[in-house]
From TrEMBL:
Gene Ontology molecular function terms on file: transferrin receptor activity
Domain of life: Eukaryota
GO biological process, one term: transferrin transport
Source species: Oncorhynchus tshawytscha
The entry's keywords: Cell membrane, Disulfide bond, Glycoprotein, Membrane, Receptor, Signal-anchor, Transmembrane, Transmembrane helix
Transmembrane regions listed in the UniProt entry: 53-75
Keyword match Transmembrane: yes
Residue ranges occupied by any Peptidase M28 domain in the UniProt entry: 390-491
Protein name (record): Transferrin receptor 2
The gene coding this protein: TFR2
Similarity-based family: Belongs to the peptidase M28 family. M28B subfamily.
Subcellular location: Cell membrane
Amino acid sequence: MFTTGNTHTVSHHSYSLLVTHTHTHTHTVSQHSYSLQETHTHCLSTFAMLAWLALRVLGLGLCLCAAFLLGYVAFRGSCHYCGVEGEMVPAEDKPGTDHDNLVGGMYLGELRDMLKKYLQDEKIESTVRRVSRTTHPSGSSEGTTLAAEILETFKDLHMDHTWTDSHYATLQFPSRIQRNSLWMVDLQGEVLEEIPLEDPDSYCAYSATGTATGGMVYVNYGRQQDFDWLQSAGVSVVGCVVVMRVGGGVSYAEKVLLAQKAGAGGALIYPDPADIPQDPRRLGLNSYTAISEHVHLGSGDPFTPGFPSFNHTQFPPTQSSGLPVIPAQPISANVASKLLSQLTGPVCPRGWQGRLPYVRCVLGRGFTSADGRRIRMGVYNTMTPVLLNNIFSSLEGRIEPDQYIIMGAQRDAWGPGAVKAGVGTAILLELARTFSNMVQNGFYPRRSLLFVSWDAGDFGNVGATEWLEGYLSMLHLKAVAYFSLDQCDTHTHTQVEHPKHTGQTIYSQAEKEGAAGRCGVFLLNCVCVSLQDSRPYPFVNTPLDTSGRLQEVLGGRLGVVGRSLGELVGLMVLRLAHDHILPLRITTYSHTALQFSAQLNKHSAELQARGLSPQWVFSARGDYSRAAETLQEAILNSDVQDETMTRIYNTRMMRVEYYFLSQYVSVVETPFRHVLHGRGEHTLSALTEHLSLLTSDPRRFNEALFRRQLALFTWTLQGAANALSGDIWNIDNVF
């Protein structure tokens, strides 16, 4: 059981809470979901690196979202134009706002002092050790024990409510009877050689099962541009087993889907030393270790897409369109080296060369041996119904208890999971303990605080998504913000004290040290860890993700860094729990739409030649910009003591992201429905990619499809503008 150690003293000094500010370069959107994640981040040197370690190693993504959590309606991908301007949470308080007002007889400055006083390094560090003491995947006895301990910890904190939300979901695990395998076979299919996998417990959850036999092709990172290059070079992957390296800005699920679309028969994924350190003496991955990850291009239980896995509820048999139909398996660098060293064929293009020893980079399809050998892979994973337990605890708001500020962290892990699950869980429990102490010492949150320990995160946020699907109609009205403690934060913040420089914030110290240029950071399941020589943390989703290694990476300062991150989240939660008007900026999407309008304008001649006019998009963008600016101005000039009006304004802001969910696609077939951050033909990214074909490859431009894409995006944007305008009599649009 985790100890709580509540204390009950507080000092009384008043000063205004200064708000941490966030940059939103890539938004993982749900309603107000602004995931702080991008594929390229600043790499800072010397002391500033500790700040970056704090914001990467601990896997902290401060996703400000409401209602549609954890990627159910929003893909964790890039929006080309998003986040260029401003922040969704203002960087500083404006004069005349209510941030100095008393909250239950206490000033925000006092509350900030309380928060800093109650957060304890030692508890965060001990919880990380406790959570990561052993492997604890969903459905295991270790995972069940950990869930019970967290439930008891919440109960000991004297929260207002603590409960368990349970679902049966279908998860995939390696078979206990037959292990996944690789062989070299001859033309008749007779086995010439079995290739030991070295890390037999690694697997790709939700892979198709069965065997695939054929030639082998190296496809770099397995990105769309990689497959496009192979096609242009006349190298076919049809019927082949493709070998690709981890990284490149695409998930395992995307890699396998793209391989499947290209006609491949199977997929092998390995960590290349060029991307992931392989030297254990320098905190690198062992060369015999593979990295597991799920390959379901979706979120939640893939056998109940779009609806919850409630117990005993009979749904028609169906499955997610994001499940692959080809087998996939992770392999170690050693196995990849053995395979790729036998390949023959055209030399790889520039930039595809990894750092595997004794490997000359060629594409394949054949092998150097004259016996006509081929590769065969066998995947025998089994589907298993598992009882998932999401653990909830809450502190009720005193004025608007039906408005929820939610903090959540993944609990399960395939390995020990120090970074994957330990740190997020530790910060979650420490924040719960801290806010409970604050409430017992005079803090009255305006809105309710929910603390959630999610199950089955490694399988694609299954526990969180099933809960979301079950309460979707309620949450889109009541969820104000969601703070994910699992994601990667790639930006510094202004009001959290630097863990190594007393009296300085993380942001100020980073500015003082200066950026040592930019470097690409490898993203693995959204946990970004950069070591001091700019290498990524290599241990996520492996048996090596232990608290000891994490401590070594952080120079023994795990507790201090964890406390700094807990303070960062706590400050933002305080602001959201206190302010009459939610501190959310809604004008950022105006700039996003403007950027797209500029792209359309570049192609105006080609569009007009086809009888297409971008004027509707320009008009919708203008309407949205005016509606957002008008609402922002009304908020600035409003009386924050007018509870009715503030409630109206807050409701309109809370639903901004909801307005950008496409109404024209099926939630069953298209779980990522957000037009700016989703996946599919309904999205802005798909529309811009299609638009680019006008100049890059006019023969592939589908005018009928483009007309449909443009019309549906335009009306979604116009609908958002109309909804943001407020009452119907305030809308003055000309269509």
